[in-house]
Automatic annotation (TrEMBL):
Residues 76-85 have a biased composition (Basic residues). GO terms for biological process: maturation of SSU-rRNA from tricistronic rRNA transcript (SSU-rRNA, 5.8S rRNA, LSU-rRNA). Residues 58-75, 87-113, 130-146 have a biased composition (Basic and acidic residues). It comes from Lachancea lanzarotensis. Belongs to the FYV7 family. Residues 114-123 have a biased composition (Polar residues). This is rRNA-processing protein FYV7.
Amino acid sequence: MGPRVEKQYTKEYKVREIQKNLVKKARLKKEYLKALKDEGFTAPEKKASEAKLSFREMKEKNALGNHKRVDEKKELKKLRGKQQRAKVIDRQQREKERVEDIKKREKQRELRSSKVTQRTRSGQPLMGPKIEDLLGKIKADDTYTR
């Protein structure tokens, strides 16, 4: 093992290395195409490459895509929020209706109770309201009206 030789990574050295690599790639490509031709295959056609976009154009293109994704996410978030608010409002409405229904039934129960418990001056129960109440229950029940 001889003395260690350090490579100087100067600009000229890097340029020479890049040139060497480009020449090597071109030579390999030429040999590959020649081998294809000798074996009877057709050389692959070059694809019409799109015009290279500048850094600024690429950045703008990506920004547009990002804006679309951000806008879609915002719309999705708004939609979820609306759905959640609609659920909450619906739940509150059902609760309110349930409470009103309970109050209505309680009021009817109290009214019926006050009618049924009426008494005369001497403290005897009145039978008229009790009979009316039973008759109303019978009329409301569908087992007797079939």
